[in-house]
Amino acid sequence: MELSVVPVDKPEDMNAIAGRAHFAKTAEDIHEALVVAVTENGGSVVKSRGQVEEATPSTLFVFNPAEPHAGWMGWSERWQYRSMYLTQTALDQLAAG
Questions:
Q1: Where are the beta strands (DSSP E) in the chain?
Q2: What sign results for the dihedral spanned by CA atoms 12, 14, 15, 17?
Q3: Rounded to whole angstroms, how far apart are CA atoms 32 and 43?
Q4: Would you give the end-to-end CA distance of the chain in angstroms?
Q5: How far apart, in whole angstroms, are the C-alpha atoms of residue 79 and residue 38?
Q6: Distance between CA 5 and CA 19 in Å, rounded?
Q7: Residue 92 backbone dihedrals phi, psi, to 5 degrees
Q8: pLDDT tens string for the chain (97 positions)?
Q9: Going by C-beta distance under 8 Å and a sequence separation of 6 or more, which residues neighbour residue 91?
């Protein structure tokens, strides 16, 4: 596997993750920030707000802070996605321009 580092100009309180998953299932979890995630390749199944939905390429998910959610592999053998974790401070900075 090849790893690369890509510099990103972002607000100090914003975290971003690019992930590739080959797992069976994640435990339900929560985050302290607003989560915005998009599927790039492959897919999975995501449970949030009592709903179970399929994540296919270009699917956009948004999870509110402290909102429980989980994901697992569906029809795809892999799931490649990118997500941003935006704190309230980061959202305020983005809104201010």
A1: 14-21, 34-42, 44-48, 51-55, 60-63, 69-72, 79-86
A2: negative
A3: 25
A4: 38
A5: 10
A6: 13
A7: -65, -40
A8: 566 676 777 777 666 665 555 556 667 888 889 999 888 888 889 999 999 999 899 999 999 999 999 988 888 888 888 888 888 888 888 888 7
A9: 34
Distance set, CA 81 to CA 12, 25, 63, 65 (Å)? 22, 15, 15, 19
- Assign residue 88 a region (left: φ > 0; alpha: ψ between -120 and 50; beta: otherwise): alpha
Runs of H (alpha helix) within 1-97: 88-96
Distance set, CA 40 to CA 19, 22, 58, 93, 96 (Å): 10, 14, 6, 27, 29
Which amino acid makes up residue 2?
A: E
Nearest alpha-carbon partner for 89 in 32, 36, 6, 37: 32
Which of 85, 80, 26 has the alpha carbon at shortest distance from 57?
Answer: 80
